[in-house]
Amino acid sequence: MTRAKLSWSDLAGAKVGIWGLGREGHANLRKLGSLGVEPILVDDHPPANPDGRPVLATSEGGLAALEQCDVVVKTPGLSRYRPEVARLSGLGIPVVGGLGLWLAEADLRRVLCVTGTKGKSTTSSVAGHLLAHLGYRCMVGGNIGASPYDPAEDSGSGDFDYWVIEVSSYQATDLPYSPPVVAVTSLHPDHLDWHGGVEQYYRDKLSACSQPGAELTVANADSDLLTERVALLGPRVEWVSADDDPGADWMEPLWLPGRHNRRNALIARRSLVAMGVPGAADDARLRAAAAGYQPLPSRLTSIGTVSGVTFVDDSLSTNVLPTLAALDSFPGRRIALIVGGHDRGIDYAPLAVGIVARPAPTYVLTLPDNGPRIRAEIDQAALGHQAALDQAARKLAPDQAPPFAGVTDCPDLESAVAAAYRWAKPDGVVLLSPAAPSFGQFRDYRDRGEAFARAMRAIS
Questions:
Q1: How far apart are CA 435 and CA 418, in angstroms?
Q2: How far apart are CA 250 and CA 87, in angstroms?
Q3: What is d(CA 420, CA 365) in angstroms, rounded to the nearest whole number?
Q4: Cα–Cα distance for residue pair 341/339, rounded to 1 Å
Q5: DSSP letter string over 54-90?
Q6: Strands (E), 190-300
Q7: DSSP E strands: which ranges in 346-403?
Q8: Which residues contact 236 (CB under 8 A, 6 or more apart)?
Q9: For residue 136, what are the contacts with CB-CB under 8 A and spacing of at least 6?
Q10: Model-level pTM?
């Protein structure tokens, strides 16, 4: 895929179209305004415009307007594989992303890009926290938050020592350059509708590691999908496993549960060392810097206890991989797992196998829309393991539950939480780790997490 090597400065005086007016689209609009550029605005579903700017619908004159532009700045949510993008490119019009425009003129030695199917937000936030508490001015942005070029954030002024940028697979397709150090936390099928297939998703996701400027990728050694694709990881790879540095205690103040989060913290630290950040290699300084870290919301966040039952919000887990990691974070604990949401067509067989094989009691409650499909996979996995399950059950005392306790479809989150609580008593965990996005039922993962907390409070 050819990536246009343009910067924001190159757009001054050009005829520019903005395609897509989500969060990053509005940052693009503000950045162009700071350059004195009045862009053409296009969106698939034009929003209300309180400032009175006209916005064209893509299918109702918008594409034709973009065809008259010198450059089109696309929001990441619009797939690069849409026929409209091919048409614009065929006319010689560069279709670029705001993050790529920023990287084209950033001091890449001071930029860490973090990508991965899951774990990239936690890794980015840990790296940013460590940098800030080592005494450096650091911005954490990209997919996790503010755009590094947005004038409203005062983040494009260069008044930072370092930038930690979380890069989604959508954004990776727009990057014309890589910084010398890129971190990759995990790899698992995701966003297949956007990328058009699983292998294309892998190539797009990992392309952030190998554009001009790339030198080193710090990668998850525990992922077979990553180790099998070392050729996509750039010129040199440094592997990090959850079992590395067994005696290291610097990360204890982070209070991050689970082996996967231990690995995320190690990847963050190894990346900072590779960048040559002073103090990053000093365990004592790093332990002091780790103090005060605030875990990101809806990522294995304990939100309360009701009559001995712990409620854990992991609403941001929208894929199989993080949900399996969430289950592994509570070894030996009785877990009522709430899964399901928007169906992106991913394979839930690995999740089903992991649930059925879990050695501690596990009860699953599924939600629309893909709950029935997840249940079917779990039922199939349970049949395949029935002999082993029967044998395990016979070894248990009469008052003990078998390891896999079954699966139930629920009509909504409130009823799932109530049923999960009844089963998890007296000392279990109610875990919301949906392995699916929240589209359709909730505004976003935060809204879903807040609904989970309300359901817990209703019980208490």
A1: 20
A2: 52
A3: 7
A4: 7
A5: --EEIIIIIHHHHTT-SEEEE-TTS-TTSHHHHHHHH
A6: 216-220, 237-240
A7: 362-366
A8: 215, 216, 217
A9: 161, 162, 277
A10: 0.85
Question: Are the beta carbons of 22 and 147 closer than 8 angstroms?
Answer: no
Tens place of pLDDT per residue across the chain (460 aa): 667 789 999 999 999 999 999 889 999 999 999 999 999 999 999 987 656 789 999 999 999 999 999 999 999 999 999 999 999 999 999 999 999 999 999 999 999 999 999 999 999 999 999 999 999 999 999 998 899 999 987 644 458 999 999 999 999 999 999 999 999 999 998 888 888 899 999 999 999 999 999 999 999 999 999 999 999 999 999 999 999 999 889 999 999 988 999 999 999 999 999 999 999 999 999 999 999 999 888 999 999 999 999 999 999 999 998 999 999 999 999 999 999 999 988 899 999 999 999 999 999 999 999 999 999 999 999 987 655 545 555 554 544 545 899 999 999 999 999 999 999 999 999 999 999 998 888 988 999 999 999 999 999 8
Q: Quote the DSSP letter at residue 445.
A: H
**Cα(455)–Cα(183) distance, integer angstroms:** 37
| Length of the chain in terms of residues written | 460
- Tell which phi-psi region holds residue 158, choosing left (phi > 0), alpha (psi between -120 and 50) or beta: left
Task: State the CB neighbour count (10 A cutoff) for residue 49.
Answer: 12
| Cross-strand bridge partners of residue 338 | 365, 432
